[in-house]
Amino acid sequence: MSPLEIVRTAIANTFRSRLRTSLTVLAIFVGAFTLTLTNGVGTGINAYITTQVDSMGASDVMIVTKARAGGNPFAASDEGPTVHDAGRATAMSGEGMQIEVLTDRDLAAILAIDGITRVEPFVTVTTDYVTREAREKYDFTVATGGVGLNVDFVAGRPLREDDAHALILPVSYLTPLGFDDADAALGGLVTIGITDVGGQLHLVEAEIVGVQEVTIFDSGTLISARLKEALHEAQMTGMPAGYRDVYMMASARFEPGRNALGEKGIKEALAGSGYAGSTLQDQLGMMTSVITGIVWVLNAFGIIALVAAGFGIINTLLMSVQERTREIGLMKSMGMSRARLFALFSSEAIFIGFLGSALGAGVAIVAGTIVSTLLAEGPLASLAGLRVIAFDPLPVALVVALVMTIAFFAGTLPAARASRLDAIDALRYE
């Protein structure tokens, strides 16, 4: 028999006992369905996170703090108490601990590091509200960054260096502020209220240059550098000068190619100067690790089902060998080699594995797509672009290949038994 004839015969033999084969295929189906669906969840969520990071343009942005930021100089440690440095700037955290902060001198030192092209301090601006044309006032939060970030726009453009008092309005504010749609909001003016340390309210006007979709990394409204300066100046009115030019952290843009060791070299240079740098990808590493861990735990249930299905394949083919003993004897007496007999029964096992995995993966893709669409249009509609379950052809193909491999190994025992049968004894079998 030629290889093609072996495959055709194996497919035909698979359906000689339809009930037994169907039950085995069903067991494989469950495992393949589970593996495909859980991998789809991981693919969908991780793809959304990656898209959000890319849309923010944060791949070349590093958050820089003092290396000891967050530490308590009064806490006991193996190295003993910290030697006092009169030149070190500190501030009180919300938990009542002193933390080391950045000054203008630190910003200059960070900018001098090879590979870093720009440094912007993070200033905390706590606004009271936003309103328009004496309408209702709404709580308003300002983001720490803004200029240079890519944004998922509904309408408008990114912030520019030469923008005066400009902002990118979240889409959720359109209707409350009285705009008919995103295009109608462009060029409109809003009033931001902010209170200084003495309790005096200041009003600052800003122009809307863009409208942004909702994002999972939403930390507030993106505003221009000059608007942030104006709001910060209003907020700090009455504050002593020594408290005005200190920063918890800074945003540093970098070009890995300008440093011989790339991003790693920049981080090492920062550490050598007493600073700590981390990218958004670093901060999201834990999140993606958790998602991957959950997917692997769920995959374990699919693998258990596949192991059980493997025993079903063994049972199905062993019974097939027993039922076809005389047929096997006839094929051997007509000159069919042990290798071709082994290939015939192995092909049956592989086909059963392919049938179950293809059906399981196909149904998982259809079901996952429907569920993902319902979620995207329903409970998760506010997260534009999120597909909880998405399918990448490569992982799906790997699931099918894995199942077929398991089926092959499960079929080796029955195939080996069939190939070892003696032709005369097989023909005499009753």
Keywords:
about 425 residues; alpha+beta; 6-stranded mixed sheet; 4-stranded antiparallel sheet; about 15% strand; elongated
Quick synopsis:
Helix content is 49%, strand content 15%.
Structure description:
Mean pLDDT is 79; it is low at 69-78 and 84-97. A hairpin with a 5-residue loop joins strand 9 (189-195) and strand 10 (201-212). This protein is an alpha+beta fold and 430 residues long. It has helices spanning 3-14, 18-55, 104-111, 182-185, 225-235, 262-272, 280-323, 325-333, 338-377, 393-420, 423-428; strands at 61-66, 90-92, 98-100, 102-103, 116-121, 129-131, 153-156, 166-170, 189-195, 201-212, 222-223, 246-247, 250-254, 275-279. 49% of the residues lie in helices and 15% in strands. The chain starts with a helix and ends with a helix. The strands form 4 sheets. Strands 6, 7, 8, 9, 10 and 11 form a 6-stranded mixed beta sheet that branches. Helix 2 runs antiparallel to helix 7 (280-323), helix 2 crosses helix 9 and helix 9 packs antiparallel against helix 10. It contains 11 helices and 14 strands.
